[in-house]
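FORM 12-B: Structure-to-Sequence Request
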């Protein structure tokens, strides 16, 4: 693959840079560099307003059809925007779930009516989404989910009951896409449906989960007869598993490249610390820093190589390698800082950036599909190895 950008791409890059330079000022200047992993609470209202500013500029859903608010941008233009956004240290996005997961899923599996209803508000930065997948006992083994959906014979609405967990930004979201079992007695991947439901309604209770970082990005969400309209079932009823897996494939796409620019900035901060405190003179630490730099370059080349790839293992390989790399970076950041890295900087004892990086990256090899699950997918679906026995434990 030719990784060089065309003249047209570079013109687009210049447009992105200029827009970000002009708009990351005034009321939004305070949010620059905030809202990253473990810091989702920072300047949230400003970042929500920033989402609307992005919508006004036409920077949400870049590849979507123009009739739904997109620009019909090329794949490389999407990459460029993500890269420049990260380099500008623009605020952490508050609607990743809506733009990068739900939006492409509705485009791929939704009806024309669903596209017209749900895509434009996302493109305008008006409606925020969260994801209702994981449950207690059904995280990595998502097909074991027990949340149920039963149809109201009078209205045709679906009544959802059950519990979801690790629901990012549920306390801020307007809507949730949620998996529920609609065929009683069905097992594993069968009989599951994909619903779109408003969060502001009776029958939904949200409880925050305090993380190692002290913040509460994640939540438990309890459903007790919460309603989803029948016309808000995405895909065929009882066939939601295929929709859910399609959504997870979208998660590993262009956004991974923008994420790696963020990783690059984090690595550079660790290198700068090593130079400032003399840790760079330690041969073992210097070798680890160099190895991290090399591996990040490999991650980028692999991400570019597999953009748009139909290979079912590509998303799992990407998640496996970047999650592991980022977790090692968190440990490296603390090791470079030495004993002092374990101390709080000052009252009121908020985490330093290296501490936040170290603690949050502990989750990288779990959320979005654990390393163990990714290895199973690669082994079974790509290498054709026998499926792992899934009998009951004795």
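FORM 12-B RESPONSE
SEQUENCE OUT:
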């Amino acid at each position: 693959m030719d990784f060089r950008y065309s003249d047209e791409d570079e013109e687009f890059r210049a447009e992105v840079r200029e827009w970000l330079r002009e708009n990351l000022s005034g009321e939004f200047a305070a949010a620059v560099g905030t809202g990253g992993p473990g810091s989702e609470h920072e300047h949230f209202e400003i970042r929500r307003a920033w989402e609307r500013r992005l919508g006004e500029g036409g920077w949400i859903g870049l590849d979507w059809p123009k009739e739904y608010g997109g620009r019909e941008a090329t794949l490389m233009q999407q990459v460029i925007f993500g890269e420049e956004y990260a380099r500008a240290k623009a605020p952490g996005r508050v609607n990743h779930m809506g733009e990068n997961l739900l939006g492409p899923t509705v485009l791929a599996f939704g009806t024309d009516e669903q596209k017209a209803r749900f895509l434009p508000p996302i493109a305008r930065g008006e409606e925020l989404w969260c994801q209702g997948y994981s449950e207690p006992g059904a995280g990595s083994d998502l097909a074991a989910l027990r949340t149920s959906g039963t149809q109201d014979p009078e209205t045709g609405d679906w009544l959802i009951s059950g519990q979801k967990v690790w629901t990012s930004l549920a306390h801020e979201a307007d809507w949730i896409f949620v998996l529920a079992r609609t065929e009683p007695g069905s097992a594993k991947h069968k009989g599951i449906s994909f619903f779109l439901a408003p969060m502001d309604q009776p029958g939904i209770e949200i409880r925050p989960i305090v993380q190692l970082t002290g913040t509460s990005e994640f939540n438990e969400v309890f459903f007790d007869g919460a309603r989803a309209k029948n016309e808000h079932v995405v895909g065929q009823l009882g066939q939601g598993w295929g929709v859910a897996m399609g959504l997870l494939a979208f998660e590993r796409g262009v956004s991974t490249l923008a994420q790696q620019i963020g990783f690059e900035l984090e690595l550079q901060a660790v290198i700068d610390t090593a130079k400032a405190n003399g840790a760079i003179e330690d041969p073992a630490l210097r070798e680890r820093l160099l190895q991290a730099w090399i591996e990040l370059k490999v991650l980028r080349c692999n991400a570019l190589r597999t953009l748009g790839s139909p290979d079912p293992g590509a998303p799992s390989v990407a998640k496996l390698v970047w999650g592991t790399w980022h977790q090692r970076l968190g440990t490296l950041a603390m090791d470079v800082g030495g004993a002092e890295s374990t101390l709080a900087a000052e009252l009121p004892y908020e985490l330093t950036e290296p501490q936040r990086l170290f603690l949050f990256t502990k989750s990288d090899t779990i959320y979005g599909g654990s390393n163990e699950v990714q290895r199973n997918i690669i082994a079974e679906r790509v290498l054709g190895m026998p499926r792992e026995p899934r009998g009951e434990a004795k």
